[in-house]
TrEMBL record:
Source organism per UniProt: Bradyrhizobium stylosanthis
InterPro entries for the chain: DUF6894
Pfam families assigned to the protein according to its UniProt record, in alphabetical order: DUF6894
Name of the protein: DUF6894 domain-containing protein
Domain DUF6894 stretches: 3-55
Length: 59
């Protein structure tokens, strides 16, 4: 299952997008196993994936 953010967040560069994706993944991990196994993807303006951060729930 996938959830797409239809509004998105505009960031200044790829480095900021990667950092933001990692923060979102960490926040989702706080919800326990609800998002375990999901990935947070960052894409550029053309829709090309520039980062994929896994949601890792601590054991």
């Amino acid at each position: 299952m996938a959830f797409e953010d239809e509004t998105g967040t505009v960031l200044p560069d790829a480095e900021a997008a990667i950092l933001y994706a990692s923060v979102i993944a960490a926040e989702l991990a706080q919800d326990g196993n609800e998002y375990h196994g999901f990935d947070v993807c960052a894409v550029d303006n053309d829709g090309n994936e520039i980062a994929r951060m896994p949601v890792l729930v601590p054991s």
